[in-house]
C-alpha cells in the first residue's frame, strides 16, 4: 500500500510539473488539450485521495486534545500564548471557545503574530491583511494600562470592539474537519455583520483546497499549517496568518492591482464608488458619522487581460471624457445590486425574510437570471458544483459562469458582497450566440448606446 502511495505521489509530482495553468486560455493549448489534462489531473487526485493535513505542518505528531476545550488547549500551549492573550481580553470569546459545543477555530500561532512568516507568493491583498491583526497586536499594551485619561479609555474601547470582531471571524459556528472544509467554497463564520452591510448576515471565509501539495488556504492569504486538532467542544486548525474581516469589494479589488487595476481605475473614473464601496463617513457637523455606499452588491470584475482583449481604440474611447457615460453603463452591467452571489449561497437582500436562494448540496447545477445594476439589463449566472468521478471525501469543484463567461476566480468575500474575476468584458447586447464576443463594430453602436 505504501509503495503504491509513493508511486502515485511520484506520478502526481510529474503531473504537477507538466500541468499548464488551467485557468485562462493558454495560447498554445487548445481547449481540448486543457480539458484532457484537467481530467487526468482529477483522476490522479481521485486515486491519491485526500489525505488530511494532520501532521503535515511544522507541528510534528498530530495533536489530540481529548480532555481540553478549544480555549483550554490554546491556553495550555506555548505556541499560542499571543492569541490566548488576545482572547483573554474578551470574556465572551473565552466563554465561546470554552463552553459552546461544536465549533471550529482558526488559530494563528505565535509566529503568525506579529511578524508573519515570510512567504514568496505574497499578494498585495495579503500584505494588507497580514498587517491588520499584527498591528492590533503591536498596540496590545494599551489594554494592560490602567485607565487614565479619556483618550486612552476611548482607544481601549475601540481596540476591544475591533478585537472582538476579528476574533469572532476566526470561529465557525459548527465543527468542521479539514475534510469537510474542502467541500464548500465559502463558509459562514460566527461574525455577524452589524454595520448595515451584508444584509446582517454572517460574514464568510473563502476556502481554497489543493491536493498536491495538500493545502487549505483561507481568503487567499492564510494557510492552514496544521489541521484537525480535536478538542472536546470543537476542532482547531492552525493558520499561518491571522484573518481579518473583509473590506469593501472595491477596496479588495484595489488590493489586487496586477489583476484588477483597469477595472478599479474605470470605477474611479466614472465615480462608481457609491455602487461598490461601503464605508464609514464622518459627518462634518458632529463627530458621529454613518456608513455610506452600497451595502449589498456582487461585482463580476473583468481582469486586466479582459480589458486588453478589447480593441485598443475602444479602450481609449471608454477612458476618454467622451466615453465616460458608456464606461459607466458598461461597468454597472457587471454588477448585481442587492444580491450577495456566492457559488453556494445566494442572498437576496431586498427580501424581508428568508432571502436565501441557496444552491447547495454535494453536487448541483444551478441557473438564475439576476437584474444587473444597469437598468433593463439582466445577467445570466450558471453555477455548478461537482465531485470527482471516484468519490473522494473532501473534494468538490466549483464553476461559475456569467453570460457564458467562466469566472477565473470565484467567491472573493467583501464586506459588502461578492467579487468574481472574469476573463472578458461582458457585452451588454447579449450577443451570446456568437462564439467569441465581438467588439470590432463598437463604433456603430457603443457611443450612441452610452448616450441613451
Ligand atoms: C457544503 O457542502 C456540503 C457537501 O457537499 C453540502 O451538503 C452543503 O449544503 C454545503 N453548504 C452550503 C452552505 O452550501
From TrEMBL:
<dbReference type="InterPro" id="IPR000782">
    <property type="entry name" value="FAS1_domain"/>
</dbReference>
<keyword id="KW-0732">Signal</keyword>
<dbReference type="GO" id="GO:0016236">
    <property type="term" value="P:macroautophagy"/>
</dbReference>
<dbReference type="GO" id="GO:0000329">
    <property type="term" value="C:fungal-type vacuole membrane"/>
</dbReference>
<feature type="domain" description="FAS1">
    <location>
        <begin position="67"/>
        <end position="243"/>
    </location>
</feature>
<protein>
    <recommendedName>
        <fullName>FAS1 domain-containing protein</fullName>
    </recommendedName>
</protein>
<dbReference type="InterPro" id="IPR036378">
    <property type="entry name" value="FAS1_dom_sf"/>
</dbReference>
<dbReference type="GO" id="GO:0005615">
    <property type="term" value="C:extracellular space"/>
</dbReference>
<feature type="domain" description="FAS1">
    <location>
        <begin position="256"/>
        <end position="426"/>
    </location>
</feature>
<dbReference type="InterPro" id="IPR050904">
    <property type="entry name" value="Adhesion/Biosynth-related"/>
</dbReference>
<feature type="signal peptide">
    <location>
        <begin position="1"/>
        <end position="18"/>
    </location>
</feature>
<dbReference type="Pfam" id="PF02469">
    <property type="entry name" value="Fasciclin"/>
</dbReference>
